[in-house]
Design goal:
Helices cover 9% and strands 70% of the residues. The protein is mainly beta and 176 residues long. Strand 7 and strand 8 form a beta hairpin. The longest helix is centred in the first third of the chain and has 16 residues. It is elongated. The protein has a single domain, classed as Porin (Beta Barrel), CATH 2.40.160.20.
Length: 176
């Protein structure tokens, strides 16, 4: 019984007293998921995305890296899948603490395939995004985060799309 109580006390002290690592030389690995409502002309449709990512802190609080966005979109008789590579930059505000705000910008290229009725098409797009978020560090290595962001996609020979989304994710922070 004493061992169980000691283990719980130790775990609580680690969770409550440790902070994330946003110092120069730290790596971050993680991902997130998001849902969003797109606004195109008269159409609204639902999308779900996952985006694994890896980054490196070039300076204290400043990370650069890349994510691999994967998305699925659906509306009545329409389905699409997108995939890509998106380099990003992220800046955390303030000294290391249990909760830190950040801003993020990204620019990349996506592939896109769709099925509409019996028609299949594929296109590429240039994508850009910006967002503001916060990370809650559970301990010095794990952070849970949320980002409110805006994304713009310009497709070849197709109308551009944009969306506002709320993304939830996690990151693992580690030094070399």
């Amino acid at each position: 019984m004493k061992t169980k109580a000691l283990t719980i006390a130790l775990l609580c002290s680690v969770l409550l007293s440790s902070y994330g690592q946003t110092e120069k030389g730290t790596w971050m690995l993680g991902g997130g998921a998001s849902t969003g409502m797109h606004f195109l002309a008269d159409n609204n449709y639902f999308t779900i995305s996952i985006h694994p990512a890896m980054g490196y802190f070039l300076a204290d609080n400043l990370a650069a890296g890349a994510s691999i966005p994967l998305s699925f979109l659906t509306e009545e008789d329409y389905r699409s899948i997108s995939y890509g590579i998106t380099p990003f930059i992220r800046y955390y505000f303030g000294p290391p603490s249990e909760f830190m705000f950040f801003i993020k910008g990204a620019f990349g290229i996506d592939g896109w395939s769709m099925i509409y009725d019996d028609t299949t098409e594929s296109r590429t797009s240039i994508t850009g995004s910006a967002g503001i978020g916060g990370t809650f560090f559970l301990n010095e290595s794990i952070g849970l985060e949320t980002i409110l962001g805006y994304t713009y996609n310009k497709y070849t020979d197709y109308d551009p799309t944009s969306d506002i989304s709320l993304s939830l994710g996690f990151r693992i922070y580690f030094s070399r």
